[in-house]
UniProtKB/TrEMBL annotation:
Pfam families: Lipocalin. The lineage of its organism: Eukaryota, Metazoa, Chordata, Craniata, Vertebrata. It comes from Serilophus lunatus (silver-breasted broadbill). It is found in: Secreted. The gene is C8g. This is CO8G protein. Keywords: Disulfide bond, Secreted, Signal. PANTHER family: COMPLEMENT COMPONENT C8 GAMMA CHAIN. One of its GO terms (cellular component) is extracellular exosome. Its main location: secreted.
Length: 176
């Protein structure tokens, strides 16, 4: 008999109970991210303020529009988070089999903050979003507890600028 496959780190993460998707709709700001992504580590000095708009589609999916600067121009990146196996869990389909991303809303007070987990393959990251570009120290502490719970550390945790946001992009700078 073969041993069972190792449990994915995301399987151990509980989704926020009683989450109402309409409460997630609206504008959010990316406050922080914890990830072992080598690109992020090499370019962390160039992080740009990032705003996100969430729209609820069909009552189950999330349409995500991310506005950020790239080489001084504002870009919009559009994604669709499809409903996952359980409430608070989503799937972001990539272009190939191994490029799908599992998403879990780990903790949220939709009027103030949301902590989301992202897993692609065996790699996991955690993001902190706020309804404003600054959140309280207590919320940052909670985010850092979630980060440590999945084995990430302070040296791979990055915080984003609180100024210089893009509110829109022109038609030539949209990535679907």
């Amino acid at each position: 008999r073969r041993p069972p496959p190792p449990q994915s780190p995301l399987e151990k993460v509980a989704a926020q109970e009683g989450l109402s998707l309409p409460e997630l709709a609206g504008k959010w700001f990316l406050v922080g991210v914890a990830s072992r992504c080598s690109y992020l580590a090499e370019h962390s000095h160039r992080l740009e303020a990032t705003a996100v708009t969430v729209t609820i589609l069909d009552g189950k999916s999330l349409a995500i529009s991310t506005f950020r600067k790239l080489d001084g121009m504002c870009w919009e990146i559009r994604q669709r988070y499809l409903p996952g196996q359980a409430p608070g869990r989503f799937l972001l389909k990539g272009r190939g089999y191994s490029s799908n991303v599992d998403v879990v809303v780990g903790e949220a007070d939709p009027t103030v903050f949301a902590i989301l987990y992202y897993q692609k393959g065996r790699s996991i990251s955690v993001k902190l979003y706020g309804r404003s570009s600054r959140v309280s120290d207590a919320i940052v502490d909670r985010f850092e507890q979630h980060v440590r719970a999945v084995g990430l550390t302070d040296d791979v945790t990055y915080y984003f600028p609180t100024y210089g946001f893009c509110d829109s992009s022109d038609e030539f700078h949209v990535l679907d």
